[in-house]
Amino acid sequence: MAEKAKSPRATRPLSPHLQIYRWPVTMAASIAHRVTGLGLTAGTLLVTWWLVAAASGTDSYDFFSAAARSPAGQLVLFGFVWSLAFHLLNGVRHLAWDLGAGFELRTANRTGIAAVVLSFVLAVAVFAVAYVEKGLRA
Q1: Handedness of CA 20, 25, 27, 29 (dihedral sign)
Q2: 103: buried, middle or exposed (CB in 10 Å: 19+, 13-18, 0-12)?
Q3: What long-range pairs does 93-97 form, CB within 8 A, spacing at least 24?
Q4: What is the pTM assigned to this prediction?
Q5: CA nearest 77: which of 108, 104, 103, 50?
Q6: Angle at 54 between CA 48 and CA 56, to 5 degrees
Q7: What pLDDT score was predicted for residue 21?
Q8: Which fold has domain 24-137?
Q9: Which residues of the chain register pLDDT less than 70?
């Protein structure tokens, strides 16, 4: 009995796989903008916790402060600050688009990369200022 030959169509992938698909900068920036929007929502809950703890007395505030000073707390705070910086810078980028500027592919890619790089620079700067200020008060 002769084996039935497989058609080339049956063996090829149905769609590009994430391992071989290259994300354009604009797509990655768009996804990051949505993710940072969710991060800002979670961060707002942390700000609420901070305000409620401050209003509730020393024990509540000490608990919040210990959580915020922990390595995990510092990582979460850095993520919140970076999310805020990226969302702001990418929002300015979208505002320029609303005004009709920056649609050229090269410009859109450069502004997307700039938003990522500058947001990290801003987040690191905020933490550097906070640590220097903390050191001056100690």
Answers
A1: positive
A2: exposed
A3: 93/29, 94/33
A4: 0.81
A5: 50
A6: 100
A7: 74
A8: 3 helical TM bundles of succinate and fumarate reductases (1.20.1300)
A9: 1-19, 138
The one-letter code for the residue type at 81 is V
Q: Which amino acid is at 9?
A: R
CA–CA separation, 133 vs 136, rounded Å? 5
Q: Helix crossing, 105-137 with 71-98: angle to 10°?
A: 140
Q: Quote the pLDDT of residue 48.
A: 97
What pLDDT is stored for residue 17 in this prediction? 67
In sequence order, which ranges of the chain are alpha helices (DSSP H)?
A: 8-11, 25-56, 58-69, 71-98, 105-137
Domain limits, the chain: 24-137
* 126 and 77 Cβ atoms separated by less than 8 Å: no
- Ordered DSSP codes for 101-133: ---SHHHHHHHHHHHHHHHHHHHHHHHHHHHHH
Residues 6+ apart with CB under 8 A from 10: none
